[in-house]
Design goal:
The strands form four sheets. Strands 1-20-17-22-15-13-14 form a seven-stranded mixed β-sheet, with no helix packed on it. By secondary structure, it is mostly beta strands.
């Protein structure tokens, strides 16, 4: 079974300094048909204006993964971490029993384009932690590169949930295939460009939920970038 979530159907808000699109219900956007998919709770695409950002705010009991497509994002948190996230880099934060952090675009003239993803954790009250890693394009060119997993396999980020996240950059007519074990589900998010899966054409911002299938093939129709989630 496959269900497409079109980019044009997402919740959208323009706050001036922040242009944001919500695949699932988030903040002031609520759609009872799209609250989450399995343990995938938030899929936000954000454009942050130069010199602006999110002031210090709290989180708890959530696995938060951030990926920058262009520009930069400066992160500071109550654990003492202070890092700048750049294109090709992922950040993983286990909010657990509670954490505060801020996120700002440090540039004076370049906007930041990012995705922020939240997954429900395996348990409540986990010890907060932070991790950041870069995954070079050559490791994901026309193939799936594991970027997050419960056991930090293949140098991926360690997330506290039975979920795995892959990243791929596909050229035109290049393809990747992911095998789904029985009882597993997949979510495909198109970050850039356009792809095809079966008879479905998917553009940037589109998402695809997949259940009760054994594999998922994705073919680039233009230069494209995708995230693929394997979920319980």
């Amino acid at each position: 079974m496959r269900q497409v979530r079109r980019a044009t159907e997402r919740g959208h808000f323009d706050h001036g300094w922040l242009k944001t699109w919500h695949t699932f219900s988030f903040a002031d956007y609520h759609d009872p048909r799209h609250v989450r998919f399995r343990t995938l709770r938030v899929m936000n695409e954000d454009f942050v204006a130069p010199g602006r950002g999110f002031g210090t705010h709290p989180h708890r009991d959530m696995e938060i993964v951030t990926y920058v497509l262009s520009g930069a994002l400066e992160h500071r948190d109550s654990m003492g971490n202070g890092e700048v996230l750049r294109p090709g880099e992922f950040q993983r934060m286990t909010a657990g029993s509670g954490i505060t952090h801020s996120e700002f675009n440090p540039s004076a003239d370049e906007p930041t384009h990012l995705y922020q993803i939240w997954l429900l954790p395996e348990a409540r009250g986990l010890e907060p932690s932070y991790e950041q890693k870069r995954f070079p394009e050559e490791e994901r060119r026309d193939r799936l590169r594991l970027v997050a997993s419960p056991d930090a396999a293949d140098g991926s980020l360690a997330i506290r949930q039975d979920a795995r996240i892959w990243l791929a950059t596909l050229g035109p007519d290049k393809s990747v295939t992911h095998r789904l074990a029985p009882g597993r589900h997949a979510w495909l998010q198109v970050l850039r460009g356009s792809v095809r899966s079966g008879d479905l054409e998917l553009a940037a911002g589109d998402g695809l939920a997949v259940s009760d299938e054994s594999d998922l093939e994705v073919i680039g129709t233009t230069e494209s970038e995708i995230l693929l989630f394997d979920l319980d």
